[in-house]
Amino acid sequence: MTSPGTVALLGTGLLGKAVAQRLQTTGHRVLAYNRTREKALPLVPLGVRIVESPWQALAGSGCVLLLLADMQAIQAVLLEPRCREELSGRTVIQMGTIGSDQSLDLERQVERAGGRYLEAPVLGSIAEALAGTLLAMVGATEEQFLRWKPLLQSLASDPRLIGPVGSASALKLALNSLIAAEIAAFSLALGLVQRSSVPVKDFMHVLEASALYAPMFQKKLPRLLAHDYRNPNFSTAHLLKDVELFLAAARRLGLECSSAEGIRPLLLKALSRNLHDADYASLFEVVNPPIDERNP
């Protein structure tokens, strides 16, 4: 268990809110900022202090956790002039999903402002964050990793040092590309099973007994069968952002990306149906549309 301390948390979206709650319940004082303040207010009864500006959160703490949506949000929140003045002597831990090049650029900007930087993106969703069982991948020096490992252990039982800054970001993109690939493949397979009048229970029985099975299939199946994508753990819009980051990184490294490129249009079509904030399982609506929407 970590020793109590004050932590600034910027970004109280789905994951950020759960992280703030977990830190507060494990003995930390949390100063939270969110650009849409109303979204952070449910944390107040838990003891989290909601501040009016990001620099106020920085000024009251020595460590800053970034759980913002993307690099554009990080630039707007953390790197605005007043916040830059507060970075000196403070450590920034970037926990969202951004590209390796973006993480390295952020490291340079934080260090120029007199701060220190490491990345610790996580795999897992709201339930894992609340239970402290996220999978944390750390890009840092060994000294930084050891310094902040106790804090990260409040959120993840076994934080793993991957390598220098940029390496953990690359690993997170690789893992999130599998999320997209798995939901696209499972949606298509389930659609074929349903339209071929094969009982879904038989499909799942054989699948679960095989080497093809991934736990995500069973986890998402109720949503797909009910066509219910409310209360997401991870949104369609965020998955599209991560797929685009993955594709950019993979192309830059000379990889053949056609298999992953095919998922991007499906996600864009889901967004065109106002499924931005729906659970990413809503990709099923594009892959398996109602009969009257199929091409002749």
Describe it for me?
The protein is an alpha/beta fold and 296 residues long. It has 2 domains: 6-164, 3-Layer(aba) Sandwich (Rossmann fold), CATH 3.40.50; 169-293, N-(1-d-carboxylethyl)-l-norvaline Dehydrogenase, domain 2 (Orthogonal Bundle), CATH 1.10.1040. It is built from 14 helices and 9 strands. It has helices at 14-25, 54-59, 71-77, 81-86, 100-112, 126-131, 142-152, 167-195, 200-208, 215-226, 236-252, 258-261, 263-272, 283-287, and strands spanning 6-10, 29-33, 49-50, 63-66, 91-94, 116-119, 122-123, 135-139, 160-163. Strands 3-2-1-4-5-6 form a 6-stranded parallel beta sheet, with helices on both faces. Strand 5 (91-94), helix 5 (100-112) and strand 6 (116-119) form a beta-alpha-beta unit. Helix 8 packs across helix 10 (215-226), helix 8 crosses helix 11 (236-252) and helix 11 (236-252) runs antiparallel to helix 13. It is globular, with a radius of gyration of 20 Å. The model has no long low-confidence stretch (mean pLDDT 95).
